[in-house]
# Entry
Amino acid sequence: MTDQSKKRKASQADLWEMIPSDLSDEDDIEEIFPTEDLTKNAVLQRNSTYPKALDARVQPSAAASTLAGSKAKASLTFLEKHGTQTVDIYVGKENILFRVYKDILCNKIEFFDKMFNGKFKEANENAAILPEDDPEAFDILMCWVAQDTVSVKVQDFREKLHLWVLVDKLCLGNLQKSIMNIWRIEDKIYDTYYTAEEFQYIFEKTARKSPPRQYAARMLRFQSLKPPTEGHEYSIDYHGKPIPLSDLDVTALAELLAKNKEMLESYLELAGRTNDPSGNEVDPRKMHVY
# Structure
């Protein structure tokens, strides 16, 4: 063996002797240097960190579950407030079924509160029959109960009239005013006028002095007293069609008033009362209901 080889072995031996002297724990010495112990130690370290990693994955899941639970609880506000109980209401001659949340309906309309929370049979059965009411009007009313909005077909006065009659029966004064204002505004926007048959229909469906009847009476006077449109011998609407019962149609007006005493009385009662400062008949479609 050469001197250089001997020196190399000596230096390696010195190195092995120096390392233990710098370490205070004999167990640490055994874990660091033998190859088998190093492998075991690496496995132990890997295994010891696995539960921590698993916990790290589980914790977000648990947090997400808690969050989902809180969201689910928050989303039950409607049920907590209104419950799940419903009532069945059969409307019209065909007994159209409306199934409505009892709490919402009774809180909105006192008529139904007394019906379903009183001593009537409807309260025991949670069901009622309204054969004389109009299903389409009742449907609009239920939309108002649920959404607090009124949506009616434009230019369909019958739908507005039926809804008003139903609301009048249920003593919903503010809603009655809203319906009449919608009625007037739409009539003005679409320049609506009424025929003799339509006036007759309104008078048949309403009581004396009721807002729809008074509106019809004012419209009748307004139409019958309209002067001829410039360039024409008669009054025309914005479609260019003759306005029913205007000065062109005096015979039809006379016949209508002759066969309907209440309409004639309403017509005459308004004489001179619905004129503007210039003496002209005021357009009733511009009158707001408060």
Q: What stands out?
A: The first helix runs from residue 3 to 22. Residues 61 and 67 are 10 Å apart (CA to CA).
